[in-house]
Amino acid sequence: MHSNHLLLEEPIRMASILEPSKSSFFPAMTKIVGTLGPKSRSVEVISGCLKAGMSVARFDFSWGNPEYHQGTLENLKTAVKTTKKLCAVMLDTVGPELQVVNKSGNPISLQADGFVILTPDQEQEASSKVLPINFEGLSKAVKHGDTIFVGQYLFTGSETTSVWLEVSEVKGNDVVCVIKNSATLAGSLFTLHASQIRIELPTLSDKDKEVISTWGVQNKIDFLSLSYTRHAEDVRNAREYLSKLGDLYQTQIFAKIENIEGLTHFDEILQEADGIILSRGNLGIDLPPEKVFLFQKAALYKCNMAGKPAVVTRVVDSMTDNLRPTRAEATDVANAVLDGSDAILLGAETLRGLYPIETISTVGKICAEAEKVFNQDLYFKKTVKYVGEPMTHLESIASSAVRAAIKVKSSVIICFTSSGRAARLIAKYRPTMPVLSVVIPRLKTNQLKWSFSGAFEARQSLIVRGLFPMLADPRHPAESTSATNESILKVALDHGKASGVIKSHDRVVICQKVGDASVVKIIELED
Ligand SMILES: Nc1ncnc2c1ncn2[C@@H]1O[C@H](COP(=O)(O)OP(=O)(O)O)[C@@H](O)[C@H]1O
Ligand SMILES: C=C(OP(=O)(O)O)C(=O)O
Ligand SMILES: [K+]
Ligand SMILES: [Mg+2]
């Protein structure tokens, strides 16, 4: 991954672009989140997705019932066991999402320049004249001239099954709209996005709370993807809610920025959240198109400097029905990596697309190519400058480990960690080689029972660029002696060798505590 590192800023020999990339054990340092659904729920397809590089599975509760998602999750567990590839679980909330329910499922044909009424009366059947919605307050929120977008769940923006509407007038609780483009709405559920409109609904709905406290608790979800996060308060409320649900106090919250309200409160949200999802599906229609890239670059920079993982969505929409991405999409994936994203989230492509596995492997290959030309040196300097001095001891150790690893051309960095903090800080400096984070379980109690920490911490690193976790045997307690440290290190090195990332005579940088001191060690392997 770090060999023959090219820099875009230097003249590249054009022919070198054509040199095939060496295959490596890790498809890419950038992680892939796949949304699982109808086209990606069998053990066979999920196994294919894991082998192709998916390391986080997203379960989107905007759609489907808990039993359906449970069936998928059971298959995921089987696939994880058989492929021996780790995968984290992300629960995605419905939040204040506006939806049109088309009970009959019959296609609804809308003609440009005609009118259609949006009504909160859900008793009415959806038709080309009336679309019933799940929200009473739309008529109070919108005014003449506002734009509304309605499309199939997870619309890609490139299909003829979604429609733009312009508000013509408000009649009581109904909103009369002019149809801007002819379209046929297909399916039984449509998402409705009112551009730049405040929707007075809670970010965590009652339905979300119920799902989290049942399905979420039962499955010990690693991540909560908080749809339509608009304020830091939304994250605080979700955290408060999770803190009372057994193991879920350890669940990380990823705030989804999907509209202008979230964008304007970005800095405060980033402080509260464990990570950010740049939800370009919704945000891409809330923002004028010419502003989307600016948000992406600015938000990724802020996440990188804060050392918090950032996930970019909606990159290869056209792969929902096609085996190849468009040129623009392929370039977009690479740019997301160059801009600093940790992970790419696939939505419709894996959920209802025809090529879930191929999409993951194509995106992974593009990411890996972009990583090779990522200007780590420049990024490193920028980050050190941003953090300033004095640095905390741990951050200084982490950044030094990355520098040492690059200088000695180390094949991997091995980081011992219990909380995951040290490994995340190393990843923050974007090393060009993989980081094997060896998570050492810690014995803990909640006054009712004793258990080992570590499982959440290990899985949560599956969304961070460059981190590859390994959970140490709980028989090696965190309060370790140097003898146990040595034996764990041997296990980590053997694991690295078996997977092909470490070879004989390689140099390896190790970050661990010896006694009370954090140390960075460089070792050179023998045969
Ligand atoms: N069990 C362990 N054995 C040896 N070193 C460790 C262990 N856990 C953490 N370290 C090292 O201790 C330092 C603090 O790491 P951090 O991840 O913040 O630890 P903690 O998990 O205790 O919060 C780092 O240098 C890390 O590599
Ligand atoms: C990922 C997104 O949201 P959803 O949950 O609707 O897929 C998005 O808007 O990009
Ligand atoms: K959702
Ligand atoms: Mg969305």
UniProtKB/TrEMBL annotation:
Which GO MF terms are attached to this record? ATP binding; kinase activity; magnesium ion binding; potassium ion binding; pyruvate kinase activity
The answer to keyword Nucleotidyltransferase applying to this record is: no
Pathway stated in the Swiss-Prot or TrEMBL entry: Carbohydrate degradation; glycolysis; pyruvate from D-glyceraldehyde 3-phosphate: step 5/5
Q: Which reaction does it catalyse?
A: pyruvate + ATP = phosphoenolpyruvate + ADP + H(+)
Signal peptide span: none
| Residue intervals of the Pyruvate kinase C-terminal domain | 395-515
* Residue stretches making up the Pyruvate kinase barrel domain: 30-360
Source domain of life is Eukaryota
* EC number per UniProt: 2.7.1.40
This protein's cofactor list reads: K(+)
Keyword match Transcription regulation: no
Sorted keywords for this record are:
ATP-binding, Glycolysis, Kinase, Magnesium, Metal-binding, Nucleotide-binding, Pyruvate, Transferase
To which protein family does this belong?
A: Belongs to the pyruvate kinase family.
Q: Which PANTHER family match?
A: PYRUVATE KINASE
UniProt protein name: Pyruvate kinase
Recorded source organism is Populus euphratica
